[in-house]
Structure formats: structure tokens, C-alpha cells
Design brief:
237 residues; alpha/beta; D-Maltodextrin-Binding Protein, domain 2
């Protein structure tokens, strides 16, 4: 933990009595609205546990993914905990926490699709959630025809309807949505890659980030992160 708080970010959060964390719904099972219209998921659970360890309440802010970093730097919330992958471009404008899980990127197609591997998708239309690193992955398999959706869930529903030939998304997100909504969709080929997933904070909020890192490392060590992952897999909310 940081023994100093020169930037006042940690004392500000403790003084207000809550930490405001942005996430973006439509990324089940990490962040989505359940049947009771309550925002739930692994990211929401991790944020709740972090707030508890900081000794404050949690205020979750559901934000469209495309503007989520701009909102952070405009001081609309204290941090982002929304399955954000660590990239150099993002690192230039935010500070990342220690990773709290690793994401495997997958290509998904309709169950009766004739495609055998990624190379056959070169001139096909790929669906992705706007503002995600999945756009870069679409480029890596040679696709220039990209259709952007508001969320990963919407991209997968678009694939089901035949609006696109394939969707690139996280493996857990893809299979969870397919099973929950009973979609006729399957994984194509092997993973495109693995990414570190971390929380993001303003660059100047060093004291708050240090305390968050301290809490995340403790959650890793005491098995809390693993238990929350198991809860997600078991219950599916």
C-alpha cells in the first residue's frame, strides 16, 4: 500500500465514503443486467470486493464502452473495472492495476458454418463490439469488413441472425452468451491470443491505484479472485 497520499486520490474516496467504478453492460457474464434488471457479473463482484477492502461503498456506473476512458479522464468516476485488456495505446492515457484475470480471444461462427479455420475469413464480414481490441484481432486475420456493435452480446445476436460471418470476442463471454441464449454458434479454430485484464485509473491518482493493487494482490493470494471466477462459472447469475 502507498504510505503517502500526495495526490489526495485515496483520501478523496475515503472522505466521500464510496468509490465510483465504471463498467459496460452487455458483456455477460462479466457485466450485464440479470432478469431483475440488476447489474451483475464477475467485474461487478470484483469491484464490490475492492470497495469493501478499501472500506467504502461501491457506486457502479454503466457506461458505453467507446467513451469509457474519456469519461474516466473527465472525472465522471474514479476507475474502470470492465474486463479492459492492457494495451500500449491505453497505457498512454490511463494507469493499469495489476491484472485480475487473463482473457482468451476467440473467433465464433454459426454452428452450421462451412468455415474450417481463420484463414477462410479474410474477405468475410466480422462482428465486434465497438472500441474493443477485437478490431485489431479482426485485422490480424486479414478482415477489412468490420461491423461494429454496441456490445459483445449484440454482436453475437447479429451473428445468429446472419448479419456477419463471424464474431471475435472473449472465450468465456462467447460461450456463456451462446449457452444462456441458446444460440446456434460455435468456436472456430484455436485462440487468437491471450490478454491481461486490469482495472484502469487516472494517471495522477497514484495513491488510489497503489491501494487497489494492494487489495487485488491480497484477493489473488487469499483465493478470493478464484472463488469469484468459480461462482461465475457455477451460478451464471
Amino acid at each position: 500500500a502507498c504510505s503517502c497520499d500526495r495526490d489526495k486520490s485515496l483520501s478523496r474516496v475515503r472522505k466521500t465514503g464510496y468509490i465510483s467504478i465504471a463498467t459496460s453492460a452487455g458483456y455477460s457474464p462479466f457485466s450485464f443486467y440479470n432478469d431483475k434488471k440488476v447489474l451483475v457479473g464477475f467485474d461487478v463482484d470484483v469491484a464490490g470486493e475492492l470497495a469493501k477492502r478499501l472500506g467504502v461503498d461501491l457506486k457502479i456506473v454503466d457506461t458505453p464502452w467507446e467513451g469509457i476512458i474519456d469519461g474516466l479522464n473527465a472525472r465522471r468516476y474514479d476507475g474502470i473495472l470492465g474486463s479492459m485488456s492492457v494495451t500500449e495505446a491505453r497505457r498512454a492515457v490511463v494507469s493499469f492495476s495489476t491484472p485480475y484475470y487473463y482473457s482468451r480471444t476467440r473467433v465464433m461462427v454459426q454452428s452450421d458454418s462451412p468455415f474450417k479455420d481463420h484463414t477462410e475469413l479474410k474477405d468475410k464480414t466480422i462482428g465486434i463490439a465497438a472500441g474493443t481490441t477485437f478490431e485489431r484481432d479482426a485485422g490480424s486475420i486479414g478482415s477489412k469488413n468490420i461491423r461494429r456493435y454496441a456490445s459483445n452480446d449484440e454482436a453475437l445476436l447479429g451473428l445468429q441472425k446472419g448479419e456477419v460471418d463471424a464474431v471475435i470476442t472473449d472465450e468465456v463471454v462467447g460461450m456463456y452468451t451462446v449457452n444462456r441464449k441458446k444460440l446456434r454458434i460455435k468456436i472456430l479454430g484455436g485462440p487468437l491470443g491471450e490478454e491481461q485484464i486490469a482495472a484502469a485509473f487516472r494517471k495522477e491518482d497514484k495513491a488510489l491505484l497503489a491501494e487497489v493493487n494492494h487489495a487485488l494482490q491480497a484477493m489473488q493470494k487469499d483465493g478470493t479472485l478464484r472463488r469469484l471466477m468459480e461462482k461465475m462459472a457455477r451460478e451464471g447469475y
